Amino acid sequence: MAAQFDINELHWLLDIVQSIDVGVVVTDRDYRVEVWNSFMENHSGRSATEVAQKTLFELFPEIDQAWFTHKVETAVMLGTRAFTIWEQRPNLVRFKSYQPITGLADEMYQNVTILPLRSTNGATDHVCLIIYDVTGVAVNKRQLESANAQLRELALRDGLTGLLNRRHWEQCVEHEFARHMRYETPVSLVIFDIDHFKAVNDTYGHQTGDEVIREVARVTRSMARETDYAGRYGGEEFVVLLPDTDLNGARQFAERLRLAISKLRVEHQDRPLQFTVSLGVACLDTKMSNHAELIERADKALYRSKESGRNQTTVFQDE
Ligand SMILES: Nc1nc2c(ncn2[C@@H]2O[C@H](COP(=O)(O)OP(=O)(O)OP(=O)(O)O)[C@@H](O)[C@H]2O)c(=O)[nH]1
């Protein structure tokens, strides 16, 4: 049965195109606008009459012309649709975002379908762009990604100090150990512990104890390099792994840290409280079979610092 052309249907279709909540633009092969629906009028602030015969590139200078024409020409040549998605390009044309949830998006995120239009004579003389506002989806996804990134970061850090937590820090040491074995670069470890910390807690209370731990962590972070790994190893025990640092460099770092911490003051009932740390230093060598040996050596050196009167640095020496 031959399809009968019904003028009513054409009107309905036009009504539908006008009222749907997606942008519909038809251009000729020179990108001059011929159809511009009300979505486009509302978001661009320009009426269909105003834009008629203007090129897309005059109307939207933000469109990357070389990229866009290549995409359209390929679609026309193959006779297939082409798409742009917001994950690759947030939008094709710059429209303000009016969605209430989108405090995070000033501009509309868009997915766009490019549809070559074939005339009755078989030639593709026109191209239709269908522009979908996907701001809601995009913003939700971005929020979720950022929340996940924050969660991942939190899972690596110690809650009280913001330093790396023990589990993650040990993973970093394992990684550095493997790197050292391969490239034989020097790697050192400084491990330290607040002196008589039990007495701090017992005398001044747990909250002041926590504040002391936070202050020690703050100074440690500020003195370590970006590439160092500063972690909280236990209650009042800290570790800093120093890649590309030999034993001598690590000893100097440990001494600077010890002095800086001894100068800290934490207020307790308007009185300044002072405290010190004892430190142990060791460095990796290729004879070690695993990273735990490095920690053991530094720990032994720390123990000697404690034994010899605290507030000092001991470097592990092979016996
Ligand atoms: N406030 C506070 N105290 C903690 C935390 N974690 C561990 N501690 C306390 O740290 C103290 C550690 O004491 P000890 O291991 O006996 O060592 P110390 O008193 O520092 O003595 P030395 O290390 O020998 O100088 C204990 O009283 C723990 O309860 C924490 O997160 N906050």
From TrEMBL:
It catalyses: 2 GTP = 3',3'-c-di-GMP + 2 diphosphate. Its EC number is 2.7.7.65. Residues 185-318 form the GGDEF domain. It comes from the Bacteria. This is diguanylate cyclase. InterPro entries: Diguanylate_Cyclase (IPR050469), GGDEF_dom (IPR000160), Nucleotide_cyclase (IPR029787), PAS (IPR000014), PAS-like_dom_sf (IPR035965), PAS_4 (IPR013656), Rev_trsase/Diguanyl_cyclase (IPR043128). It is an enzyme of class 2 (transferase). It is found in: Cell inner membrane. GO terms for molecular function: diguanylate cyclase activity; kinase activity. Keywords: Kinase, Transferase. GO terms for biological process: cell adhesion involved in single-species biofilm formation; negative regulation of bacterial-type flagellum-dependent cell motility. SMART domains: GGDEF, PAS. Its cofactor is Mg(2+). One of its GO terms (cellular component) is plasma membrane.
